[in-house]
């Protein structure tokens, strides 16, 4: 089968990538794609390489990368105007207090935000290029991992090109008030999201995130573990529990926080002294490997379910992960043997001290967690699972 994976990149990552490689934006499509994948950021080419290893022809499209997409268009005879990376349009960012206030209502507000230009979307040129790529590739399966840039209207246009199996993947609460029936299958690592789609009459399945073992060979030499406690990831109004945890840790330990410094963070927050800047791809994995302990706290909307990317990235590179307890965590990792677990802020603070004081136990947890990830949580496992879903779809079409 021919499988096309649609994804989008953070504009900040794109800015970093193209600053790092002078002249890359004028390079051929294949060269730009190679540089994008070599960064190891996000899912890179991990899905396509594993679909290919299972006997299929697969490729990725990074739909909001204007340099990459522009190169493809020019190489295929399409006129194209260069532009910067796509971002929400509109005026200045909302004040911090307002961002925090609207966070619980985002699923209901997203359709309105799109109409007024405050939600990520593709412009007419980007949509035209994407549709031309789909016509050129002639996929049997389109795996859409960005349901924001590819809205329902665009999904219907994609579906009209040869009627591929259209699969959506989403890891947060979906937008309300949308007609998701264009999708043959929706996937999420969150059971609550899967149930949301099923209640709408849309076929849905749990499919977790993963780790790519081959990236370990692509990383620089393993660094010294010179960081006691780290957190690598986003801090935003969507992460109130995470912020409370990190602030408590920062009051007691030399926390190194690798990520963005949000506008909504109060000036009094102790986290301001912890920020080390953003790290992408290989640099992110190296930050995890430098850490004696790296922390995890799921986004608030995850509720009582575990499944974020950090679970697999941290354990995959052999870091000792101290993660928040969730009801389903035991289905992914054995608590306190493959990952260390905290159940409250006070428990986390105490757990850091216990783990730092016990070198042998910390190393044992890191090794056990890495073994579990390699045995059950790789992109090869996930690709095979998706292909199994497709066989069920084919049987019912």
Largest sheet report:
6 strands, parallel
Extended strand count:
11
Percent in helix? 40-55%
SSE series: EHHHEHHHHEHEEHEHEHEHEHEEHHH
Strand order of the largest sheet: 2-1-3-4-5-6
| Arithmetic mean pLDDT | 91
Radius of gyration: 21 Å
Structural class: alpha/beta
In CATH, what is the class of the largest domain?
Alpha Beta
Q: Quote the beta fraction.
A: 5-15%
Number of domains: 2
Low-confidence blocks of residues: 86-94, 97-103, 108-117
Per CATH, what is the topology of the largest domain?
A: Rossmann fold
Distance between the termini: 16 Å
At CATH level 2, the architecture of the largest domain is: 3-Layer(aba) Sandwich
Q: How many helices in DSSP terms?
A: 16
Shape designation: globular
Keywords:
397 residues, alpha/beta, Rossmann fold, 2 domains, 6-stranded parallel β-sheet, 5-stranded parallel β-sheet, globular
């Amino acid at each position: 089968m021919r499988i096309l994976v649609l994804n989008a990149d953070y504009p900040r990552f794109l800015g970093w990538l193209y600053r790092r490689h002078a002249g890359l934006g004028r390079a051929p499509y294949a060269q730009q794609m190679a540089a994008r994948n070599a960064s190891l950021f996000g899912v890179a080419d991990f899905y396509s390489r594993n679909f290919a290893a299972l006997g299929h022809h697969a490729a990725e499209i990074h739909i909001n990368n204007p340099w990459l997409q522009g190169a493809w268009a020019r190489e295929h005879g399409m006129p194209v105007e260069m532009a910067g990376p796509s971002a929400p349009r509109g005026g200045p960012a909302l004040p911090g207090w307002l961002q925090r206030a609207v966070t619980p209502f985002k699923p209901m507000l997203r359709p309105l935000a799109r109409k007024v230009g405050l939600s990520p979307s593709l412009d007419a040129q980007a949509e035209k290029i994407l549709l031309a790529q789909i016509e050129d590739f002639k996929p049997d399966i389109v795996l859409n991992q960005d349901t924001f840039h590819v809205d329902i209207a665009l999904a219907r246009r994609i579906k009209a090109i040869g009627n591929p199996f259209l699969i959506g993947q989403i890891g947060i609460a979906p937008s309300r008030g949308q007609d998701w029936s264009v999708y043959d299958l929706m996937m999420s690592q969150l059971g609550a999201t899967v149930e949301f789609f099923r209640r709408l009459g849309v076929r849905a399945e749990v499919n977790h995130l993963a780790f790519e073992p081959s990236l370990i060979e692509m990383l620089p030499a393993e660094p010294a573990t010179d960081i006691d406690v780290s957190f690598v990831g986003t801090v935003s109004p969507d992460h109130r529990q995470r912020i409370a945890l990190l602030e408590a840790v920062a009051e007691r330990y030399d926390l190194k926080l690798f990520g963005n410094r949000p506008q909504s963070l109060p000036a009094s927050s102790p986290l301001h002294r912890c920020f080390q800047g953003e790290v992408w791809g290989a640099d992110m994995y190296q930050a995890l490997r430098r850490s004696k302990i790296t922390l995890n706290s799921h986004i608030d909307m995850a509720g009582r379910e575990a499944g974020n990317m950090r679970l697999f990235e941290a354990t995959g590179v052999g870091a000792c992960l101290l993660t928040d307890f969730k009801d389903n965590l035991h289905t992914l990792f054995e608590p306190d043997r493959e990952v260390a677990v905290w159940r409250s802020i006070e428990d986390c603070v105490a757990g850091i001290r216990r783990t730092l004081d016990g070198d042998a136990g910390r190393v044992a947890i890191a090794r056990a967690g890495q073994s579990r990830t390699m045995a059950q949580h790789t992109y090869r496992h996930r690709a095979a699972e998706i292909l199994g879903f497709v066989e069920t779809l084919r049987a019912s079409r």
